[in-house]
Amino acid sequence: MPNLAIDILYIDECIVILNKPAWLLSVPGKGPDKQDSLASRVQAQYPRAQNVHRLDCATSGVIVMALTRSAHRELSRQFHDREISKTYTAVGIGKPKEKAGTINFPLIADWPNRPKQKVDIESGKQATTHWQASDTITTSSGEPATRFTLNPITGRSHQLRVHLLELGHPILGDRLYAPPSVIELSKRLLLHATQLTLSHPTSGESMQFDSPCPF
Questions:
Q1: Residue 161 and residue 179: Cα distance in Å, rounded?
Q2: 3-class secondary structure, 150
Q3: Which range of residues forms the domain containing residue 119?
Q4: H/E stretch holding 20
Q5: pTM metric for this prediction
Q6: Which of 40, 16, 42, 45 lies closest to 28, judged by CA?
Q7: Active-site residue among 12, 56, 120, 135?
Q8: 7 an active-site residue?
Q9: Which of 30, 141, 144, 162 has the largest count of CB atoms under 10 Å?
Q10: Are residues 132 and 164 both part of a single domain?
Q11: pLDDT tens digit string along 148-199?
């Protein structure tokens, strides 16, 4: 039996804010071995709960689910219209020359290597990430790594992972995109959704939810 515990940061009659652990699917996948997910655990307690967005299985952090149809419609609209603000923390190998910047690399599915994504200037969908470098970390191998604060404007699949890779700083523990030497530096993907800001779907009140970075 899987551990069906869920970490609820906030709940009311419309929304539930959760802290997703790493290595838990946001929604069930294909096959009997991929049925355990954050959605299925929440729905076991709140059957009307619906996903509005997802985090990668390897990514941890704050995520919202809707508890009513009207809340789902309104939150979906806010995501579509880019009214919801998301902040992530990541640790990437190396040290950037600049302290902050914006990445604008369009992304598309890398079909021969699914589920990987890739940069495609001609056919890719717009993908924008604002980034800021904070402290420098010395890894177990003695190489420098950098803690990044990331604010994705768009929400493409694997956007942050591919954008940091293209910036030259693949995320530690990224088993899809990092080279073996960088994968070996962490047992998990060092990417965490630290903050989510949205307007309450009923009252319109601006609400901010935080999940402290575990690494």
A1: 13
A2: strand
A3: 86-191
A4: strand 15-20
A5: 0.95
A6: 40
A7: 56
A8: no
A9: 162
A10: yes
A11: 999 999 999 999 999 999 999 999 999 999 999 999 999 999 999 999 999 9
